[in-house]
Amino acid sequence: MSSKVSDHIIKQSDDKANPDPGLLRLKRLVEQVIELHRSHPGKAMKLAREAFPLANRLGDKRGKFELLLCFARMEARKGRLEIAETNLSEALAQLPGRRADKDSLCRIYLAMGAVYYLQQKHQLALEYYSQALACNVDKYKVDLYLNIANLYFTNSNFHKSLQYQRRALRLAQAQGNSEKQIFCLSNIGAIYVKTDQDLRALNSFQEALAIINTLDGYDYTRCNCALNLGAVHGRLAQWEEAERQYKEAIRVARQNQFHQELAKAYQYLGELKASTDDASSFLYYLYRSRKLAKDNNFEAILIDVLRHLQQHFEKQQDFKQAYAYLKEMAEVQASIEHNKQQKALSQLLDSKDKEISILERQRDQIEEQRLKLERNNRELEKSNRELEQYAYVVAHDLKEPLRNISSFTSLIERRYAGQLDETAREYMSFVVRNAGRMNTLLTELLRYTTLRRLPEDKVRETAAEEVVQQVVRDLQGKIKESGAVLFLGDLPSMSVSFDHLYQLFFSLIDNALQFNKSEKPEVHISARRDGDKVEFSVRDNGIGIAKAYQGKIFQLFQRLDRDRYSGTGIGLALCHKIVQLYDGEIWLDSEAGNGSTFYFTLKD
Out of 311, 432, 473, 512, which residue is the most buried by the measure of CB atoms under 10 Å away? Predict the structure, then answer.
């Protein structure tokens, strides 16, 4: 039993002081079904039918999933493909966290692909196999190779099919997986039959049967292996051995109610009797095959049987009987075509119903999201107003005592100037400087917390060059003191707040001047338009920033060298917040000792 199922049920049992006897019994039943569903499908089906109502009553979704998956596989073997498809859809609905449970999803997709393959819907089968492959679960890769090989086989690409079968066989042998080795060898034998390599086919089927004989059960595979061996012996004109294998297939199929395989075995044995001119046995077996095929709607088998009967009676010059079988065959073929058209129409209607249902759900979801977005926007506006109010109150309440500290310190210094020694005056100066710095920090923090984008109807066209010129005028003292030279490229006009653009350039140019120890500091400012965005750059020849610190500098209060350089650590965080308001980005290109270039984009 898979660890997922076992762990799930054990956990439920452990959660209670007295484990539920029903839950423990369900666990045992599910384990037995999983263990027996391939080797003893009859027993497994009986146990599964006993376990499923119990899983329903207990509400155990994992148990139901495992049982439905086994139901689907067993129904598919009996040729009841629509029932198998329904079981798989129900199994998929039991998965609680579909994205997380890759193992279960992979198993479902593999089974879905197999069912669609049997329904001859090869494109759908390939889509499900591709989804299974995307789950990337190593233990199911043998199955994937096998199924892809079967698709190539069905489309008569035997060379490709053989490549994938051999790849699957090597993996199965490496894993010591006897069951998968049986499948691979049987499929390789079928490819050899199609390519007229009868002796190789015989060897492959015999190898498969030899492995089956070492195992308990595997009656479905044993039955198919016997059918294949009978066909190869018949091709080699080894009539007695062919008949023995077909009768073995009949015995196993009867015992396990493999109706499709039983109908095939009767058909093949009847055809074999025709080859040995045993007309009565030919008719006996073909009549039995015909009845089974009609009762179970095996249309392909039925058409083959009717064709053989029609040809037999035509040779016997019993034209009335030959015509009757020919007419029945035409009716079956017409029914198949009619069913195809009905199915195609039904699928089209189902598809349109699903499309309408999806569109209606999407419409409802969009409306729900719109209402939710409106509520969120109202709550966000309220939170922003509360934040601004709180920031103003905090800033005011903190600034007032700071002003008092500065005032009283200055007063003490003047009042007792003659009584204070050098150390006391130094202490007083330290208090005043730090109070001033705290005041500046609060002003900057207030600016950061209240920063918001202006409504579009209040934003005017702003010339970036005029903004930079204003920044240069305000920093004129620092520029003259450092002897810096500024190089200004062509800067565009754009719909952005003057104050926001001013804060951006002021912080970046101020940093370029402050963190620059070269004899002739340089600052280069340029811009380029890219669609609806403008990319600005501010480049300097200053001290640069080491790679290790570049990811931190846009965070609040990040100052890389507190001892040598003044500042609040808010300027670049403020820049980062401004560019985000305009759906932009900010980054830098720098090396320690080689200057820095700051880039930022703003959406126009």
Answer: 512
Render pLDDT for 352-389 as a digit per residue (tens, 0 to 9): 666 666 777 777 778 778 888 888 777 777 666 666 66
Alpha helices in 483-583 (DSSP H): 498-514, 571-581
Q: Taking Cα atoms as reference points, which of 212, 183, 185 lies closest to residue 201?
A: 185
The whole-number pLDDT of residue 11 equals: 38
The predicted-structure confidence for 229-253, as pLDDT tens digits, reads as follows: 999 999 898 999 999 999 999 999 9
**pLDDT tens digits, 12-25:** 334 444 557 778 88
N-terminal to C-terminal alpha carbon distance within the chain: 61
Give 3-state DSSP helix, strand, coil % of the chain, rounded to 5.
Answer: 75, 5, 20
- 485 φ, ψ to 5°? -120, 130
Distance, CA of 161 to CA of 147 (rounded, Å): 10
The angle subtended at Cα 388 by Cα 384 and Cα 390, nearest 5°, is 115
The packing angle between helices 279-296 and 299-315, to 10°, is: 150
Alpha-carbon span 467 to 578, nearest angstrom: 15
What is the dihedral angle through the alpha carbons of 194, 196, 198, 201, rounded to the nearest 10 degrees?
-40
Strands (E) in 235-357, as ranges, are none
**How many other C-beta atoms lie within 10 A of the C-beta of residue 448?**
17
Pairing of strands 461-463, 485-488: unpaired
User: Which 3 state secondary structure label does DSSP give 293?
Assistant: helix
Query: For residues 146 and 167, what is the distance between their CA atoms, to the nearest angstrom?
Result: 9
C-alpha 523/C-alpha 514 separation (Å) is 11
